[in-house]
Design a protein that fits this description.
Shape: globular
Order of helices and strands: EEEHEHHHEEEHHHEEHEH
Distance between the termini: 23 Å
CATH architecture of the largest domain: 2-Layer Sandwich
Helix content: 25-40%
Strand content: 25-35%
Mean pLDDT: 93
């Protein structure tokens, strides 16, 4: 990536350490309970501020129309909301798999909002940015706030949490899963009892979407069955990625070396503070 005169920021992955669906609202949205934790693995976005008002993604994602890309939508939203007359050229280094449940698109949108709020000096508060982000997607606010959290509602009601930080092997079978297809399914569990969350009890919780996905995606079911032989393993979000929990990087890398051929994977450490916020603070300090 040519980053001359560009300012770069990480766009981190997240895990849903569990995901309970406790109800459904009249507008069709699902009421969720989940814990978000970040990973030290990320896309990278680089920004070059321009004096015209054009928003340009220099390397569009294949198969994604720019007008549908959350990177472009987030920049235009902030520009419109604040009346900013500057523009930006953006370069994306994509590492997070699409359709994997790691929040890549939402994370990209949050990185754009936070980065441009700093670089354009539009001076919105975190609360204002989170409210803007929520109009782009339910997972955007967690990336805006930048701390591990127990989330309720559609994922926007956040209570800070401190789950244990393990080393994770993240594995993705050769399939992508549409969030919409999961949440519109008639046979998805939607009546899990609400919990009183405790960081110490997190390993007893589950992912309601996983039951549906492994029924309809044999690739996920097969990989999950394989991984469970080596470590506690669970699907994140609506899939298709599976995270396996280890106490050391060495153990995670060993099991990664044994994965069946054709499985996309990476090893990363869990984080309770987003690396994006560390990067934003560094720019502000300068």
């Amino acid at each position: 990536m040519n980053t001359t005169s560009f300012t770069t920021f990480p766009s981190p992955a997240k895990l849903n350490l569990f995901l309970h669906i406790v109800g459904r609202m009249d507008n069709g949205y699902h009421q969720l309970e989940t814990v978000f934790q970040f990973l030290d693995y990320h896309d990278t976005l680089a920004f070059k501020i321009t004096e015209n008002n054009a928003i340009t993604l220099l390397n569009p994602i294949p198969g994604v129309d720019n007008n549908d890309n959350l990177i472009i939508k987030a920049a235009r939203l902030l520009q419109s909301f604040t009346g900013c007359h500057q523009g930006v050229d953006i370069q994306l280094e994509k590492r997070l798999p699409m359709g994997g449940g790691l929040g890549g698109g939402s994370s990209n949108a949050a990185t754009v909002l936070l980065a441009l709020n700093t670089l354009w000096k539009t001076n919105l508060t975190i609360k204002q940015l989170a409210e803007l982000g929520l109009t782009l997607g339910a997972d955007v606010p967690i990336f805006i706030h930048g701390y591990a959290a127990f989330a309720q509602g559609i994922g926007e009601q956040l209570t800070p949490a401190s789950p244990k930080t393990y080393w994770y092997l993240i594995s993705k079978p050769n399939c992508s899963i549409s969030t919409q297809s999961v949440f519109t399914s008639k046979d998805l569990t939607r009546d899990t009892p609400s919990i009183r969350y405790s960081d110490d009890n997190i390993e007893n919780y589950h992912n309601d979407c996983q039951t549906w996905v492994i029924k309809h995606y044999p690739e996920v079911a097969k990989l999950l069955a394989w991984l469970i032989e080596y470590a506690p393993s669970q699907m994140t979000g609506t899939g298709a990625c599976i995270f396996s929990r280890f106490s050391s990087k060495q153990e995670a890398c060993y099991v990664q070396s044994l994965l069946p051929a054709g499985i996309e994977s990476f090893v990363a450490e869990g984080l309770n503070e987003s690396p994006l916020h560390v990067a934003i603070a560094a720019v502000n300090d300068n």
